[in-house]
Every structure is written in structure tokens, then in C-alpha cells.
Amino acid sequence: MPVITYRQALNDTLGEELARDPNVLLMGEEIGVFQGSYRITEGLLQEFGPKRVVDTPIAEEGFVGLAVGAAMLGLRPVVEIMTINFILVAIDQVVNHASKIHYMFGGQVRVPLVIRTPSGGTGQLAATHSQSFENWFAYCPGLKVVAPSTPYDAKGLLRAAIRDDDPVMFIESLALYDTKGEVPEDDDYTVPIGVAEVKRQGTDVTVVSYSRMTAVAMQVAQRLEGEGISVEVVDLRSLRPLDRPTIIASVKKTNRAVVIAEDWYSYGVTAEIAATIQDEAFDYLDAPVRRVAGLEVPLPYAKELSAASKPSANSLIYAIRKVLEGKKK
Amino acid sequence: MPVITYRQALNDTLGEELARDPNVLLMGEEIGVFQGSYRITEGLLQEFGPKRVVDTPIAEEGFVGLAVGAAMLGLRPVVEIMTINFILVAIDQVVNHASKIHYMFGGQVRVPLVIRTPSGGTGQLAATHSQSFENWFAYCPGLKVVAPSTPYDAKGLLRAAIRDDDPVMFIESLALYDTKGEVPEDDDYTVPIGVAEVKRQGTDVTVVSYSRMTAVAMQVAQRLEGEGISVEVVDLRSLRPLDRPTIIASVKKTNRAVVIAEDWYSYGVTAEIAATIQDEAFDYLDAPVRRVAGLEVPLPYAKELSAASKPSANSLIYAIRKVLEGKKK
Amino acid sequence: MAKVEDTQRSALERENPDDLRHYYYQMLLLRRFEERTSEMYVKAKIGGYCHLNLGEEATIVGLMAALTPDDYIFTNYREHGYIIARGVPPGPVMAELFGKETGVSGGRGGSMHLFDAKTHFMGGYAIVGGQVPLAVGAAYALKYQGKPGVVVAQMGDGTTNIGAFYESLNLAKLWNLPVLFFIVNNGYGMGTSVEMGSSEPDLWKKGASFRIHGERIDGTDVLAVRDACRRLRARAEQEGEPAILDVVSFRFRGHSVIDADRYRDPEFVRSGREKHDPVRNFAALLHDHDIVDDDWLKAMTDRVEKEVQEAIDFANASPDPRFEDMYVNMYATPVPNIPGPEDAIREVKINRGEL
Amino acid sequence: MAKVEDTQRSALERENPDDLRHYYYQMLLLRRFEERTSEMYVKAKIGGYCHLNLGEEATIVGLMAALTPDDYIFTNYREHGYIIARGVPPGPVMAELFGKETGVSGGRGGSMHLFDAKTHFMGGYAIVGGQVPLAVGAAYALKYQGKPGVVVAQMGDGTTNIGAFYESLNLAKLWNLPVLFFIVNNGYGMGTSVEMGSSEPDLWKKGASFRIHGERIDGTDVLAVRDACRRLRARAEQEGEPAILDVVSFRFRGHSVIDADRYRDPEFVRSGREKHDPVRNFAALLHDHDIVDDDWLKAMTDRVEKEVQEAIDFANASPDPRFEDMYVNMYATPVPNIPGPEDAIREVKINRGEL
Ligand SMILES: Cc1ncc(C[n+]2csc(CCOP(=O)(O)OP(=O)(O)O)c2C)c(N)n1
Ligand SMILES: Cc1ncc(C[n+]2csc(CCOP(=O)(O)OP(=O)(O)O)c2C)c(N)n1
Ligand SMILES: [Mg+2]
Ligand SMILES: [Mg+2]
Predict the structure, then answer these.
(1) Which of these, A112, A287, A294, B152, could form a disulfide with A323 (CB 3.0-4.6 Å)?
(2) What is the mean pLDDT of residues C117-131?
(3) Which ligand sits nearest to residue C77's alpha carbon?
(4) Residue whose C-alpha is closest to residue C96's, from C121, C116, C66
(5) Residue C2's pLDDT is what?
(6) Residue C70 near residue C147, CB atoms below 8 Å
(7) ipTM reported for the complex, 2 dp
(8) Please, which residues bridge with residue B173 across strands?
(9) Which residues of chain C lie closer than 8 angstroms to A109, CB-CB?
(10) What are the pLDDT digits (tens) for D305-320?
(11) Chain A contact for D93, CB < 8 A?
């Protein structure tokens, strides 16, 4: 199978879906003439023209709402929000409008909309450009929220999202764009929304993660294998719907769990996962579920502070060792 | 001690703080001429005039941002957002601005701002007027988030919030406005931000709640006392900072916990509390922490569906019985 | 505002009398529907927030008279009259207000969230300004798909102060979209007068920063509204020129059914209802011109009375949504790990103390 | 845009030559500061996003020349020049870009978030439009407290399409606040031209929907900018009349240091930099009028070179923020149950694999 980057997987999928369905169109700031702030839409304006690849003014609330309205009439807009931080000015349209319209109007109209946006942040992007808000969206009934960790899943989930008739928040990660992985050619596969995947089998501890943190978890699992620690990695892939059965099945096997996410600790994604595990696998747990997440500060700019405030492989290893304490070999 | 309503406690406090500090001013839609959509600001325009009680256009993003900027220059604005649902159009100013400014600029400037807003919804207010978003704000470092359940706490926390030099989200509840409680006169007390309170002592199970659900929990506790079940009620009062020690101390005593909130179940406030308890009181728990929260739908209008989608005293009782199953009397 | 009589007298000659009578019938139907709605609210048949169109009948009927079946309409929460004037029978509308399964939104939306796909009535929305970008998006879709028609973005005067409105104006003009910004200027957003809310209180001028044409029109004159809408509609459809219509009317009551309207001088309200009653004025006009007579007017009153009563009876007799349908229409495309009817039943039972 | 020479020639007579020389010095300092900043970015001394003021020197220096110490300034993320021209030494500014404890924001803000309370430089903000309501709020506070001064809301051309901008215009005019909306019109928001973004590309007209006066000015002419700002500033302060200033300049490079600027025709960029270089043109003007000579210009170049080098040296020599200070300034009013220095140290140790 060809090995391509996460960026390429997204770019390919967007191109293929534009070619497949004339109602699909891309919309967002700097996606056309500028070729995409992170080059996800590179070349697509040239290939599909300005009707299908639409550069917008800086007016997120306006064009997200516009995309919702257009979707109600049968278009299938795929909107890029440059980074998730900027969706705050448009969040009313996502949460009070897109997520409610199908249900609130008794199912008479659909909103086949995808909003793609990178979350998190590894560089020194400072307080307003480094946040994760996927937990906010995952909280909202009516939305679907996915967050692929590999090029394969990126492609399969983006296809699924574009072909899905509900509003889907498609969460990406700047730090994953250049990562590589196998993606089959000439295979119109989709990855189902709402289904997690055991990305690596293990017996000692379950690590639950998504997006970039799954990549971290896979590295850590590999590293700990050398020490004789067998880590199972459950990649959520979807935050809403949340695939609780897959998580629980894994924890019932390993009896120990660590949850890792890049967002802030309190009220973040890890809270929901830990709360779910203790509820549904209480009798199987040999140690409390530990959560690894970002430090609770507006991300400081200074290089070392910035790096230290996001969870690292070290943070995960520390947590794994903690939950394994007292376990007899 | 005089018994007054939650509404009266808020109204009194606003008036007293306006009288105390000339830099305090109220701002919001319909708070003056209209006397407040829910009459919290009734009479204050008449008493303090339009300089101190400012009716705004429908422009939440604009006037919340304006209040942040005014706070940076030393005013102490207390903004009313008519209901929490409408803050979505202003959330960028709260989360990307108010919450970051003190930290991000190295402590050079303060944002002594209070945003008051009712959350939740009991009537048939339908999908866009019945939501709870306090978990979103509680997630954000730099904000303080409080949610009083009684007239006493409403007064004490509002005083504390107005006198605090950080941005404080002050979460109210429509259904609490007419509830009554004792509030001392001529006593300039404050309720500390960041400190929970054991509102009722008990030995069999801890119920953790805040705002309206604390009122529900208190009723349930009373009711179950007749059946010989002793319920301890921990009222969070602050969601950020979260008083974990008080929660944990209670659970270590009772060994069982139920968490109740009016918001949606997944990724809601109950997740953080349950995750915290299993982490810090793992060895003390005799049963999984159960969570009681709203059904995950855009709130339907129809009367019975609407009522059934919000947690009730029955929901709490059911959960308490579940965690007590197998406990020997 | 020109007097209703002045502008209409000459125009009346050229009108089809049946049309005129139909407009009157529609306005009267809206009037009576809203009056009875208010009663039903007091009887607790209707819950939540409920906003009436009393005083805005000519605005609504005039607009609808100008539209074609191709057109789409997005409104705010004060929309009972719009969906009825667009052609949806009063029964399912009242049933929606009652929260019944037979309601236009299956009882899930209520007064603020009426919808009817068949007539392209694309919903009432309750976040101020939220419907405006949606309407612009619908216009975008029409243009994209090369379809005829225009989209109406209805809103109130107070709505013209929110960011979404301005962003929408820019996008509509920038991309030449067939959309009509239809501002129902009843002078107030709740208790806030236009002058308290807008630095430019001549709302029709609010397109000036966007090169969008605007006009002010007397919203109590059904023919004036219709004609302006027809003209601007045609321009929007043919030239992709969006426009603002500032339609001035008088709000007969408080902001919503439960608003006691204490901030308006009672004398102002009384004389406003006297002078600016579009239904009574139109009846007088038609009567003066011998287009209708007393008998016809009486017959209309009876007919409307009966139709509204039938709507209430229909709503009353309709079933409530079933608990097991709590999660129906949660998602259009089903996916794994979402709750179903059994979950709904169990959860409701717990909630009601039946488990 | 009139040529710099034409508008300035007659005006020059009335100017204090020391002022003119000072403007030149300031512009040159900003120019060199930004050129070296770009170098430092490439050397990875600076991280995150970094936006330069190259080409906008006259805009900045002209504005600052018009302001008084009472005034406040809120800007976007392209603000290095503003804080320096306002009077903050280059050292702490460069130190901030380096993320050092001695930086103007203690190293916590970085290039996009400079701040200096003493000179009323109220911060650079990186959410497009976010600073605009803040500035209006500061003006509100000045008026409320009866203090002198005005507030400058600096922003780019692309920012005039976002809702917060329009809501701010309405509030500023409605409440007669002393605020100047200062639009740095460099023709582009990233790769989007003004015409692609705004249905009204004459940005000075964007106050029309709000009864706000606007003017366009040549942003490469330091004296024209200063004079317009003085005039509008006085009106804002004395009459509470907000105004829009559409200041046209030429962006010398890409949007940020890492933008290769592929969407602009290289010839357009080359000739733009040639024609619209405010620093070189001003030097020529002063030289032509014998206000400066070659030696003076050379001396300035050396002085500025040295000052910027010293700023870099200062930044390099400055300490990084300490890990234990991670939570410092989290809250202004301490409350229970918040993390402290021990938590910071433990968490950082875990993060770095030291625990
Ligand atoms: C964003 C937002 N802010 C506030 C409200 C509360 N609210 C509901 S209707 C209304 C007044 C709207 O006035 P206008 O646009 O003139 O419409 P009218 O009610 O007069 O028809 C307000 C403030 C809301 N629903 N949404
Ligand atoms: C709300 C929001 N949307 C998008 C962005 C990404 N962004 C940063 S700068 C910029 C362009 C702004 O252009 P302009 O206002 O002309 O300022 P300039 O950079 O030219 O000085 C964009 C789109 C952002 N920071 N915030
Ligand atoms: Mg109105
Ligand atoms: Mg620009």
C-alpha cells in the first residue's frame, strides 16, 4: 500500500469527493488563492475552479451559517476553519443551529455539513492559538465529532463525514499533517463514524486516546514493550457518538486504564472517558483510571513553558507506571 | 434571619454593590427600561440612573467585549446575558479574551468582570433556550465559574464575584429565582469562590450537585431520610476552581457517590466529578459513581418530552438506590 | 409613512378584487389565529415563549403575495403568521404550538420553531440574527444550482444590531445572492426602541456600508408591501442584487404573550392600535370602494372564526409525541452507539419514577 | 493616493525639523527592527506566528505622533512597531519575541501579544476583530470616568468583514465614545484582497451604516497620517465622535514571516516596494529639503543598527521564565484550590521525564 501523509490523505479525499458529487463544495478562508493555510486544499482551486473551492472573507459566523443554510437546500459544504480557536466566533451557528435543525424541525430537513479544523497546538502559538475545543462539540447532541489519528482514518472518516447527512465536526491536528501511513489506492473505503478501534493489542493496560495523542500512545506502547509492559491502545476516532463498548471491552481485559488527550485536564475529554470506565468496568479495575492532559493555563508563549504545558510521551509513561504500581509481573 | 427569594438576593446585592463602588455598573439587554427579562435588575435603573444601569442593543459580542475593555481600565462591569444560550455569540470575547488577558500579558492588567446568566431550563423553552454551558466555561483556565443554589449563596457569591479582580461567570437558574431562603441583613458577608459546601450531612451516600440540582438533592435527601437512607449533599458552588478536597472527603466517609447536573450527560459537569472521585477515592468506593444528567437531545418542545429530558428527583432517587444496592443495612 | 388610503386609492383600480378579498381574508385569519393563540397560552395549552404577529398582518400577507413557490423563507420566532400566509393550514400550526405529534415540526419545535418543507418555509429561529446567515446560504444554494427563486431573511428591527446581520449583508452582496433582507420594524426589540439600539435608526440605510440598496415601506399597507417585495424580489432573482426592506409596523402587544408592556405609554399603544390597524383599515378601504360589503365582512369573520376553532380542535384532539420517539430525528444518517427507543423508554421511566 | 512629495512639500515649511528627523529615526528603527526580527525567526530564536510591519512604518509613526500620553492603543498581532513607536524600548520587545522573562509580557505573550501598561499600549490580539470591542470598552471607561484621551482600535483591512467590527461601530456611535477605528489597509488579509473580502472596498465608507465619518489617507505619508489622526482624535475627544481612518499602505512581504507570498505577482510586489517605501521616500524628502544630509542619514543608520543589535543582545542574555512560575498570573485575586509553584514543578518534571 502506498505510504502518504495525513495532509495528502485529506487533500486527496477532498479532491475525490469534489469529483464524485457536484453538490460538494469547499469553503473557508485562504483555501483557494492562498492554497490553504496548512496546504490541505493545495491545488484544488486550480483543479475545480472558484465555484467549488470558495475563498471567504474573515467572517466565520457568516460563512458557517451560510454553509448550514446551503446544506439545508441540498449542497454538501465542507468548511475549513483555519484553526479551532477561530470557531468561537461561529459557534452559535454550529451549536444553536446546525446541530438542532434536523431534530427541532421534526426531521424535515437535513444539514449535510462538514467542518474541518485543526485542534491543539505544539508550537509556541500562545494562548489564543493552541486550544482544544472538541470536548465542547462532543457535548452537543445533534453533532457528530470525529478526530482521526492516521492517514488511513483521515481519509476514511473524511469520506464518511462528507457522505453523512448530519453536521460533522472533523478535528485535525497541525502536528499530524506531516505524519505518514499506509492508505490503499483505488479503494472507496470509509471508516464508520461512532466506532473506535483497538490500534494495538495489549494485556497490561489500556490507553484511550484520539488524534495526535494516539500517535504518542503508539510510540509509548512500542517503547514500553521493550520493558515487558504490554499496552493496548484504543483510538476513539469518534468523540460523538462515543464507542463505549470498545473502551469497556478493552479495560475488562487489561483491568487498568490511562486516558490521554491534549486538551485541558478539568472538564476535558479525559473526564468523560474516565467517568465511563469507572461506571461500566468498576469491578474490573485494579487501579483508578488515570488522566493525562494539558496543564490548565492559557498556553504561555515561551518555548519551554509552552512545551511543558502540553502532555508528552513522558507524561503518558509516568501515568502508565502509576496504574501498574503493585501489579505483580 | 429574613427569608427572601433568590431573585431578591441578587437584586439587593446588585443595588448594594452599585451603591458601594462607583466603578460598578450593570450592562445588558433589557435590564433597565424593561426592568430585566426575569426582573433581577428591577428598580435599579430608577435608583441609579442610566450611567450605572446600561441597556444595550442586541449585540452580545460587542457589549461583552466592551465590558472586558472597560474592565481593563478599571471599571467593574456586571453584565447580564439574558440566558446562557445567547452567550454563544459572545463566547470568543469571554474565552479568547477575558480569560487570557491577565495571564497572557504577564499580569499587567486585570479584568474585573462578572457575567451573570441563567442556565438550564425547566419550561418548554425548546432546543435553543434550554441549554447548560457552564461546563464549557469551567473548562477554561483564567475564568472563575460559580453557580449558587440558595439565596444566601447567591448573595455571598455575587458579592465575592463583583469584588474579585478576575472574570467570573455567575451561573443562575430560572427555576431558582422564586425559591426562598434565609439571608442575613446588615452583614457584608461573602461566600468564597472555589469552595464547596456540605449542605447536608449524611453517611450512606454522597450526592454532588450545584445550582438547581442542589435544591433537588436536598428534597431527595429529606425524602429518603424517612426510608432510613442518609444522604450527604455536597454543593459545589464553584465549578472553577473545583473544590476537589471537599468532594473527596465526603466520599471517603460515605463510600458511595451520585453526581447530578442538569446539563447533557456526555462530556458534562458530572463527568469531571465522577472522574475525580474514582481517581482520588478509588480505594474507598463501594460502588461506581453514578451520574444523573439530562438526556442527550436538543430539548424537544412538547411538554412531556421536555420534562422527561431533564433530570428529576426520581432520576436521582433511582441512582441513589442503584449505588446502595448490596449495601448491608 | 404615507396614509394607507392615499397610497392605495389609485392603485386599487388596477387590482383584481378577488386578490384584495383574499388578502383581507388572510390578514383576518392571522389576526384571529393570534388572538386565540394568546387565549390558549393563558389556558396553558401552549408553553415556552410565544410571540404574536398582531399588528403585522399586512406586512406578512403583503410579503407572501409577492413570493412564488420557488422562493424560500427564513424567519425569527415571531412567525405564526408567516407559515400560515405561506399556505400551511392553521391546524398543524396550532398543533405545533400545543406540542403535538401532528404539529408542523412534530411537536418538537413549538411556537418559535415552525417549519414546513413543502412550502419552503424554512423555519422560525430563536437566536436573534441566527436565521440571517442561513437565509443567505439558501440563496447561495439557489445560485449554485442555477435554480429560480429568491430567499427571504425575515428579522426584527432589534436584530439589525447583531454581527451576524452585517456579515450576512457583506456575503450577500459580495457574491450577488438573491436574498431579501426583510426587516419587520415594529419599533422595538423587547423594550428597546430602535433609537436606543441603532446609531442609524433609519434601518433601510443599513446597507450603505455594503453597497446594498434599501427602502422603507409602510408595513400596515398590504399592497405597498407586496409591490415593494415584488420589485426587489425580481431584481434579486434576475440581477443577483440583494436588498433591504425596512417594513414599518406597530406591535399591538408586548414582546411576547407574557410581557405586560409596561415600558410603552398606554396612550401611545392605544392610539397606535387605533391608527395602524392593518386589518381594520383594509376592511374600511375595501368597503369604501365597494369591493366588499357588510355581509361579506361578516361572513369572513365567521369563516375565520370557524377555521381557527377547527385548528384548535384539531390540536386538542391530536396525540402527544410518544416517549419512545425521544431520539427520533436525532441523526439523519444512523451510526453505531446512538440511543434508541428502548433507551428512551427506560430513561423516561426512571425520570418519572416508574422504575 | 497622492504622491508623498506633493502633499508634503508645502507642509514641510511649517514643521519643526527636529520632529521630522525624529519621525525618520522612528521609521528606520521599526524597519530595522523588523528586518532583524525576520532573521531571528529564521534562526529559531522566535517561534509561533510572527507578522512584520515592513512597509507600514509611516502609518505607525504618524499615528503615534498624533497621540497623547492619555490615549490608549489596542492592536492586532502585527504590532511590534506600534509598541516601539509608542515609546517602549526595543530590548524588552525583542525579549518578548524571544520568550524571555524580561519581555514586555514576561515571555508569556510572544510576538502577537505585546503589552505595556505604562504607555497605555493595551495589547496585541490574535483573534481577528477581537481587539475592536475591547478598544470601544476602553473608550467607554474614559467617558464613564470623565478622563481625557481617546482610544485607538487598530486593525487590518480584512478585519472589517467580521461581525465584532460592526457591532463595535454601532456601540461607539450610539454612545458617543472617543474611539478611532484605525484600519491599516495593506490591501490583503493573508492572500485575500480587499475586493475579494468586502462588498464595499472603499473601507472608509464602512461607517455609512452607522453614521460614522470616515476618511482615506495615504499610509506611506507620515505627516498625512499624523495630521488626519490629530484632527479626528480631537473630534473624538471633544465631541465624542468616533471616526474611521482607512490608512492605505503596502505590505512588503508575505502575511507572516513564514508566508512565501506566492499569490501576489512578484512584479507587483517589487514595484510596490519601490514606489511605496515610506522610509526611503521620507529620507529623500528630508534630504531634498536640506533637513538632513548624507552624514546624518548614515549616522542614523548606524544608531539604529546598534540599538537593534543591543535589543537582540539584551534578549539573548535574558533568562527564560521559570517552570515554577507556570501558574503565576493565572488569577489576579487568589482563591482556594488553584495550582501553585509545587504543582508546576511536579507537572513539568513528569512532562520532561524527570519523575
Ligand atoms: C442572541 C440573542 N440575544 C438575545 C435574545 C433575546 N431576545 C429574544 S427576542 C429579542 C428582541 C428582538 O427584537 P426584534 O429583532 O426587533 O424582533 P421583534 O421581537 O420585535 O419581532 C431579544 C433581545 C435572543 N433570543 N438571542
Ligand atoms: C477570527 C479569526 N479568523 C481567522 C484568523 C486567521 N487570520 C489571522 S490574520 C488574518 C488576516 C487578517 O488580515 P487583515 O485584517 O487585513 O490584517 P493584516 O494581517 O493584513 O495586518 C487571518 C485570516 C484569526 N486569527 N481569527
Ligand atoms: Mg422589533
Ligand atoms: Mg491586511
Answers:
(1) A287
(2) 98
(3) 1
(4) C116
(5) 47
(6) yes
(7) 0.98
(8) B119
(9) 115, 117, 122-123
(10) 999 999 999 999 999 9
(11) no
Residue in A16, A30, A42, A129 annotated catalytic: A129
pLDDT band with cut points at 50, 70 and 90 for residue D13: confident
The question of whether B129 is a catalytic residue gets the answer yes
User: Quick check: is B97 catalytic?
Assistant: no
Residue-wise pLDDT tens digits, A63-86? 999 999 999 999 999 999 999 999
Question: C337–A63: do the CB atoms touch at under 8 Å?
Answer: no
Task: Give yes or no for residue C1 having a pLDDT over 50.
Answer: no
The CATH number of A3-182 is which of 3.40.366.10, 3.40.50.970, 3.20.20.80, 3.40.30.10? 3.40.50.970
3-state percent breakdown (helix, strand, coil) of chain A, nearest 5 = 40, 20, 40
**Cβ distance C259 to C190 under 8 Å?**
yes
Q: What grid cell was written down for D101? A: 522573562
8 Å CB contact between C95 and C103: yes
**Type of residue found at D164:** A
| A180-182/A3-5 β-pairing | antiparallel
| Alpha carbon distance A221, A317 (integer Å) | 9
- At position A197, the amino acid (one-letter code) is E
Phi, psi angle pair for A241, to nearest 5°: -65, 155
| In chain B, domain spans | 3-182, 197-324
Residue ranges of the domains in chain C? Answer: 16-321
Distance, CA of B91 to CA of D164 (rounded, Å): 12
Which of D145, D204, D202, D143 is closest to D169 using CA atoms?
D204
Alpha-carbon span D199 to D178, nearest angstrom = 27
List the one residue out of A81, A72, A77, A82 whose CA is nearest residue A52.
Answer: A77
Q: C-alpha cell of C75?
A: 424567519
Please check whether the two domains, B3-182 and B197-324, share a CATH topology: yes
Which residue's C-alpha comes closest to atom 8 of ligand 1? C128
The Cα–Cα gap between C161 and C171 comes to 17
Show Cβ contacts of residue D318 under 8 Å, excluding neighbours closer than 6 positions: D95, D98, D100, D101, D102, D103
- Is residue A204 within 8 A of residue A231, CB to CB? The reply is yes
**Closest ligand by atom to C197 CA:** 1
Distance separating alpha carbons of residues C278 and C300, to the nearest angstrom: 16
**Which residues of chain A neighbour B264 with C-beta distances below 8 Å?**
139-141
Residue nearest to atom 7 of ligand 2 (CA): D128
Distance CA A215, CA A202 (A): 16
Residue B215 to residue B150: CA distance in whole angstroms: 8
Cβ neighbours for A126, distance < 8 A, ≥ 6 positions apart: A299, A300, A301, A306, B104, D48, D108, D109, D110, D112, D113, D126
Q: Mean pLDDT, chain D, as a whole number?
A: 96
Q: Is B33 exposed, middle or buried (0-12, 13-18, 19+ CB in 10 A)?
A: middle
What pLDDT, in 10s, does the model give residues D164-223?
A: 999 999 999 999 999 999 999 999 999 999 999 999 999 999 999 999 999 999 999 999
Cross-chain Cβ contact A96/B128 below 8 Å: yes
User: Looking at residues A112-126, what average pLDDT do you find?
Assistant: 94
> What topology is assigned to B197-324 in CATH?
Rossmann fold (3.40.50)
Among C75, C78, C80, C29, which Cα is nearest to C51's? Answer: C78
Residue A254 corresponds to which cell in the numbers above? 487489561
The SS3 call for residue A101 is: helix
The one-letter amino acid code at A14 reads: L
Nearest protein CA to atom 19 of ligand 2, as residue: D189
Kindly state whether D150 is in contact with chain B, defined as any CB-CB distance less than 8 angstroms.
no
Give the residues across from D156 on adjacent strands: D184
Going by their DSSP bridges, the two strands D72-76 and D121-125 should be labelled as: parallel
CA atoms within 13 A on the CB side of A304: 16
CATH for C16-321, among 1.10.760.10, 3.20.20.70, 3.40.50.620, 3.40.50.970?
3.40.50.970
